[in-house]
Design a protein that fits this description.
The chain is mainly α. The chain has 5 helices and no strands.
Length: 150
């Protein structure tokens, strides 16, 4: 088995772990969490054409994970290769980037789950490389964009 396919398998497992963490955090706060985020995402795209929705899926499953993994994981690990930066500061910035005032009381668990996701993605970058971190992020985002297909 090649190292790329191993990294992709690790990334799929990591993406499923991230979704499990999101659900656990949401349940501990007693909020609907992921279904609510998916509902908001679907409402934001209501009335859009199928080609636009396809572009949005491409954006959320390919482009956003590429950009966010590059900016929040690779760049900090190269610029300041210190565990505090990679496992605390960058994931916190990543979580705060996902703050959405429209979600009301979902903000705290959603931001917290994104911070934990950032730590998981950083660990995947360290153990499986960029392919693992990117795949995990793409798998994690895939759940939300699947709401467009229903």
């Amino acid at each position: 088995m090649s190292s790329i396919s191993s990294a992709v398998y690790l990334g799929v497992a990591g993406g499923l772990l991230v979704k499990g963490v999101h659900i656990a955090i949401d349940e501990s706060f007693g909020v609907p969490g992921i279904p609510e985020v998916a509902r908001c995402f679907k409402e934001d795209h209501a009335g859009y054409s199928t080609p636009f929705k396809a572009m949005s899926v491409f954006e959320h499953v390919i482009l956003i994970p590429l950009g966010e993994e590059g900016f929040f994981r690779v760049l900090p690990s190269i610029a300041i290769p210190h565990p505090l930066v990679n496992y605390a500061i960058a994931p916190t910035a990543f979580g705060l980037l996902h703050y959405d005032p429209k979600q009301g009381r979902l903000n705290t668990p959603y931001v917290l789950s994104q911070i934990v996701s950032g730590v998981i993605f950083a660990a995947l970058l360290k153990t499986g490389g960029f392919s693992a971190a990117f795949t995990a992020h793409a798998v994690s985002n895939l759940y939300t964009v699947c709401s467009l297909l229903t």
